[in-house]
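Input record (one chain):
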Amino acid sequence: MNYSVDEIFKYRCENNCLGFGIPFITTVVVKNQIGDTIYKNKAVCTFSEEVGYMQLTLSIDWKISDAEAKRLGLYGSYNTNYQEFRYDDMALIITNNKQPERVIYIMDRPE
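The corresponding structure, as predicted from the sequence alone:
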């Protein structure tokens, strides 16, 4: 298991062991390279396990248009093969290897 997978399991266990495939609502914050918040809103998130690719995926429904998501550089899913996940201070923090200027924070306890 890689470091990012361990971090996702920490987040899931701290938040009542969220199951794979079960959507949850939480606050998602995205910051740019200088720390400015470019997105903050509730979003529907879902963890999934993709055994064939040996990865865990977090899907995020941003609740904004595709054009706005593209403008902000946001994707509909992030996975442990391409992004780094870190659990710190009750937040799951995602950094994108292809876009290091974006940091995503899955913030509060799921609703």
